[in-house]
Amino acid sequence: MPVTALVSAKSCGVTTTALALTLASKRPSLLAECDPAGGTIRAGFLQGEVGAGFGLYHLAAAERTGPDALAQAFASHLWPMDEAGHRKLLPGLTDPAQAAALGRTWPALSEVMHVLADEAHYDVFIDAGRLALESGRLHTTLTPAPLLHQADLVLLAVRGTEQSLALARHVIDPLRTELAERGSGSDALGLLLIEDGPYRAHQVAEALKIPVLAALPFDPGTATYFTSGGRPPRGYGRSPLLRHARTATEHIEAAASRRHIQQQYPPRPSNPQLAGVLQRLSERGGSRG
Asked: By three-state DSSP, how is residue 7 classified?
């Protein structure tokens, strides 16, 4: 299954989009909240249910101990978002100042997430937040660049508005160059359209010269629930956002599969030291005592 990183040029609903895709997936799924500016799901959608003792920041110390410690910490810091435990969250940072400690953690964390995708067949979605550039490159602290380099797909979230397209134009060329020189190729980049505004998918793709790989409707009621939590809106399970998110996950998987075939990638080498993450996840099951 693919590891998909979602980013934006400016606030464009990346977290809401990643959450919708994770909850709507037909397979087990993981949302890794890796925005260096800080995570919002624990205080919003989860309404403070998850304390600061869980989450991304705690993986930095584990990574310095070694792969097995990282695998163990990764499994212990995932939070179930459904009763069966099929949808899991790696909660994000509680303080943006913590981002500097993760510089050397990102590559190892990416390996763990690929193990989960390749061997346990999880859909993995990375909320990488807003892109930050420095001298035409991804900022090494304000963007989790190694996660984008190693992702199967990098989706730039845009809205169908002139303002959103104008902002996207400024980051597309640097991001393409980054993926070509340090990632798996510029063809990893695609668009995820939030259908808010006058421009349709074909117009957005033509304007930005990048294919729209998936689209989601503008659904304020469900989006507000994802942002703030509380009581689900009426008809939540059949909401336009969730229904289209299910289709979007299928489009994303198909795009990743086409890319693998076209690139003729060799199988990703297994890492026995990281494979323990799968055993620990199965031992923990879907709930916390």
From this structure: strand
